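Hi U.,

Before I forget, here's the chain from the pilot set. I'm dumping it here mostly so it's searchable later in email.
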Amino acid sequence: MTHEPLVGIVGLGGIGSAVAGQVLASGRPMIGWARRTESLEAFAARGGRVAGSLAELGVAEVVISVVFDDEAVRDIAFGTAGLIDAMAPGAVHVAMETTSPRLARALYEAHAARGQRFLAAPVFGRPEAAARGELAIMCSGPEETFRAMDAILSAAGETRWIGPEPEQAMLVKLIGNHMILTMAELLAEAFAFLRAGGVGAQDAKSALMDELMPRVFAGYARRLTDEPSAPRPAGSAIGRKDNALVIEAARALGVDLALARCVAHMNDVACQF
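Structure:
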């Protein structure tokens, strides 16, 4: 029989609870700890074993953390009776929250000093995607650690190994979030601009998002991958000219295009909204 490691989890919010559900559904034993009693009750109802304290997660061979921010991660990892003190040599800490790259490196080094292993594994996806096992999981750290954890993490979504350095997955996650936030703002501005000009939202979506933009983005991605030093299009003469025109048109329509204004000034002033 194949040995199934005991999997610990700390943090049973929207994403953590869904990840735990997927791991439990895959038949793996789990022990969990969270600050909220109701989260632990739901975890126990699905077959998880409730830890009486964070330190009790030290019995697990793998501990997944899904907490909120750097402060929360430091608390569960470096705090009194935290994971670094509690985990056994050889055990693996899988960090599925988004942290600073600096903290990912510090966690890797602190675990290594105790003979433990660390894998950064931040995720893209909302709780609904996690509940369906459809997260996009970016992983970095020693490849052998990733390979050892892949079967467990694959229960929650599609895994991708980014590279051997613990901070690399966090870099991908952070810039990915920046792209999402920027794109969401861009879309909001684009549709406000077009509505003000009487262009139907469905027509605009079909023309721009369904047909044109996927090709444009793919083309620029290939260019910047193949030619890292290629000039940015916003700085070209045609880019500056067309950006000025869209700002002028937006003003006439009574619409503020904050991103367009930022692009217009990004080469000589700080971008302020």
